């Protein structure tokens, strides 16, 4: 049954958000293992593991009190198999880990570890072992602020709970307990647990749908028609939030030197050179090799990108892997099934140029900026204005109107008036307006 009033809704949501800790609390000194894939003949060659290790290290350091104390790159042919490493490598790894008494856990930089693999490795090493999915999910949990973001994280956790369940039951079955029927119900313990999870998932989806419905309504009422919406996207930590702060002067915006600092889509109003107001949407950053389920649960949020008028792709050009990051962002965007024109009109901006002396962009239309120091922003705003006008079919016009006639009030009603300069001696005013559509302009010419 659907809860009827807001209190009940909130209670149900709190219940859905109650959960066990994913990672141990407090300080962790992590041993980072990166299985470097060696491809067979004819398959693409991985160039280097360095950036992957750097990124994994950054993920660990995002967690409070966690640090990487040692790193090891180990080659593997079968990163997705239950036995990730060959026998010799595994023995060497085990020996190294056992010889490091200061470490408290191991981060195996694979997308996702099967539960039995985790168990086996933990038994061999006597330490907890985490994968990329668990670490990122934990960061998401810590950074999610709004109810919507928290529910989305809860949704992303369902597959994890499901595989834990399967694993536990398999374990119990082994001991003869798992398939026992719960008295009178005709369901086994496993079936009950699976049903509970299914119901939980459905409830989360319903709660999310409710919240999104409200947001859509708000958004439509507030501004959709009037102000163009610019979605600011990019790799995590590239400076999206910093840029929005610089473009809008919004003091409530808080950039942080963290991966996935932003998990909630928020809108911030800013104005372009001709005083046109636009709404910038801050979005969740992209990361390569993220498990699909994790991104999918946030796709509802990212759907908002599909409804924007323009996409602004922010790149951190000081990052050694900036090209790879760009490719990763573009492929993620493509997988979101955005309308074609939105991808075609995308504006690319090169950020953090203060860290790259003498930088000049190789892409023809990209503007070089420093969101932190505020350089290049005038050029960016001018480019954004052109792009917004083109993408939305809006026209920016300066019209001379008679003060006596009905023109001015018509413009106030049907267009967005940016500026009015009255010339009293001539009885006219120069009005700068944004006309929402060609048909509106046609109407104006016909009327006056
Ligand atoms: N040097 C320099 N640092 C910058 C610039 N822009 C952003 N930063 C820094 O980069 C870090 C990340 O900035 P954010 O704005 O939080 O990045 P984001 O893209 O919103 O990151 P997520 O929300 O985590 O995806 C912060 O420490 C910023 O101060 C810049 O132009 N120059
Ligand atoms: Mg951010």
UniProtKB/TrEMBL annotation:
Keywords per UniProt: Coiled coil, GTP-binding, Magnesium, Metal-binding, Nucleotide-binding
Task: Give me the Gene Ontology terms describing cellular component.
Answer: cytoplasm
Q: Which Pfam families match?
A: GTP-bdg_M, GTP-bdg_N, MMR_HSR1
The chain's coiled-coil residues are 190-217
Q: Where is the signal peptide?
A: none
Instruction: Say which domain of life the source belongs to.
Output: Eukaryota
**Binding site residues for Mg(2+):** 241, 262
Q: Which residues form the Hflx-type G domain?
A: 228-392
Q: Tell me the GO molecular function terms.
A: GTP binding; metal ion binding; ribosome binding
Transmembrane regions:
none
Annotated binding of GTP, by residue: 234-241, 260-264, 282-285, 351-354, 370-372
The cofactor(s) it depends on are: Mg(2+)
InterPro entries per UniProt: G_HFLX_dom, GTP-bd, GTP-bd_M, GTPase_HflX, GTPase_HflX_N, GTPase_HflX_N_sf, P-loop_NTPase
Entry keyword annotation includes Transport = no
* UniProt cross-references to PANTHER family, sorted A to Z: GTP-BINDING PROTEIN 6-RELATED (PTHR10229:SF0), GTP-BINDING PROTEIN HFLX (PTHR10229)
In Swiss-Prot or TrEMBL terms, this protein is called: Putative GTP-binding protein 6
Species, as recorded: Otolemur garnettii (Small-eared galago)
